[in-house]
């Protein structure tokens, strides 16, 4: 079962489909009892609000596994639209407030029924809603982020494909994280085979430097079609980020709203031909945020025009960047990493 599924919501008949898919995926992932009902209700409310206020949009459902979450296994729902947005989202979240003649229970219900939730909206630019449930008996009270870094991601295949040729992974230890993103050449199962092999190499060698890990990935991908690969290690205590990459994976460090550093990747394809690799060293300021994305998102991808978005949940940030910068004709992956509070 893919970790991500995308459901377009363009008419009322798709509300029931979104609810069915979300409930089914949650049950298959291990959720049961009241949490299943809460998930179904949240998807219904969110999809209904989307149609009323924006006319159309999409819902992304993600099974967050322990290996890539920076915390505990969870189910995430992202609801994305490019509608009129909201001037005052706090007011809209109060039960009883409505701009569409409805009872006005949507956003308030989402907050109550989710283990965690977050919202972002800009007038005339659309709205994004995140809802999350932890796969634990105490899911509504335990904090999700128990490791040094919070991680959010969107990983969606090209329209018409059944699997995504992009893959990513992260390994965390005390004060450190090593991460990898791979974009297999082309699309479909062969591209996915290459990118997943890169992630398996990360899992088997989490203590290596980025340069050495990229060398190991290059060797591991020789029997595949190859991939663009980026590897980095953040040391929170030392305030450093070490990075090595080949191909067109983009990475930016943000210190506040503006991008303070674009990370350097070299030309080449892991598994086929790479130059003499270099590892670049960057400062990692306290409060910094990293945005990493494949070329399924445009080169203009960034946070510059999104007030206070860097302070939101990284999954919500990843969802908005995907919504606004995805090329829609390629596999699309964006990962956002920042220090846990």
Give a topology summary.
Layout lengths: L3 E6 L3 H17 L4 H20 L3 E8 L1 H4 L4 E8 L7 H4 L13 H8 L2 E7 L3 E9 L14 E8 L9 E8 L2 E9 L3 H17 L5 H11 L6 E9 L4 E7 L3 E5 L4 E4 L17 E4 L5 E5 L20 H12 L6 E8 L2
Antiparallel strand pairs: 1-2, 2-3, 3-5, 4-5, 6-15, 7-8, 8-9, 9-10, 10-13, 11-12, 11-14, 14-15
Description:
The chain is an alpha+beta fold. The chain has helices at residues 13-29, 34-53, 66-69, 89-92, 106-113, 188-204, 210-220, 314-325, and strands spanning 4-9, 57-64, 74-81, 116-122, 126-134, 149-156, 166-173, 176-184, 227-235, 240-246, 250-254, 259-262, 280-283, 289-293, 332-339. The strands form 3 sheets. Strands 1-2-3-5-4 form a 5-stranded antiparallel β-sheet, with helices on both faces. Strands 6-15-14-11-12 form a 5-stranded antiparallel β-sheet, with helices on one face. α1 (13-29) runs antiparallel to α2 and α2 (34-53) packs antiparallel against α5 (106-113). It is globular. The model is unreliable at 95-104 and 139-145 (pLDDT under 50).
